[in-house]
Each structure stands twice: as structure tokens, then as C-alpha cells.
Amino acid sequence: MLRFHILYIILSLPVYLIFVYLQQRKNNPKVYISLIFHGIFYIYVCYVIKYTLFPIPVNENYLSLVRPGTTFKQNISMQPLWLSGHFSFTKEHALNILMTIPFGFIINYLIKPRGSARILMLGVLVGICIELIQFGISVLLNYPYRIIDSNDVVMNLTGVVAGYLIFRVISSVYIRLVDTLHMKHNSFTQYIYDCGKTY
């Protein structure tokens, strides 16, 4: 089995942050604050990759044993949940929603312009990308090592939207509190304020 190791994050995170710094240093006066959120987001994405794509069965002896009894058709579901007469909300559905809530929250500190339409688009893309990568790995292995389910995309989108709504609520409360109390900002709190104020 090919497993995800925390060493991957330790080695790649500095490279990613250096890349972001070089991209933003001329146009973003708060680049160092931005790097904090980019770092958090990068670690989060790495753990999403860990739990959605790994472990990957690469041992040919193992694959030769499991391939004959498994077909792609058995492990691909394209039926929307609302068309299923026996649909029930499962633990997997809940986990798929919870997994992408941080995405819907943190992404607002990284992108401009922000807005509900863009969040919806990103939410759909997140779910589709995960399923497509799982399918691509399965094709390379000639073995469906993960169940490809269109409903996972719906659950991932739901999580992203939930994270976005949480961001909107927290930002609204924070901005109102700051304005009411005339609180002074440091660089970090100003960054938080500005990101929430763009809506």
C-alpha cells in the first residue's frame, strides 16, 4: 500500500509558501498575513488528499487477487440521491460534508473577488476533482480502489456552502463588533476585517 506520510507536508509546505510569497510580494502589502492562511489551507488540503486518495494499493500481487472479483460498474454510482427511493443519510455523507466545511471558510481569506457564485463554483469543482482523481487512479491501477459516487460531489458542495455561511456570519458579527466599539487594528485583525468587509 502506498500511504500518505506527514513528511510530504513538512517537505512541500515551505516550497509552497515561498512560491506564494514570490507571487504576492509586489502587489500584496499584507503578504505575511496571507501566508498564514495559505499555510493553514495547504495543510488542510494535504489532509483532504490523505483521507480521500490514500492508501493506494500498488502491490501487484494484491491487485491480481482482487481484480477478478471487482468491476468498475459495481463501484461507480451516478444516480442522484433525490432519485433514489431508498436513500438514507449515512456516516459517509456526514463526513463528506464535514470534510469541506473548512474549505468554504478558509478560501475566503485567500481569493478575490469573493462571493456566493464563486463559492458555489469552487464547491462543485472540489467534489468533481476528488472523484475524477479517484477514478483516474483506479484506471491506472485497472482496479476501482474507491467507490466513485456522484452524491459525494453534492455532499462536498454542501460542506463548502456551510463553511461559507459560517464565514459570513462570523465576519458580520466581527465587523459589527469592531465598528461599534471602535476597536483598533493590528495587521492581522485588519486583514480579517478587510476580508469580511468585501461582501
UniProtKB/TrEMBL annotation:
Ranges of residues in domain VanZ-like: 41-170
Record keywords, A-Z: Membrane, Transmembrane, Transmembrane helix
Keyword Transport: no
Transmembrane segments: 6-22, 31-53, 93-111, 118-141, 153-175
Name the record gives this protein: VanZ-like domain-containing protein
The keyword Transmembrane helix is assigned to this record: yes
InterPro entries xref list: Teicoplanin_resist-assoc, VanZ-like
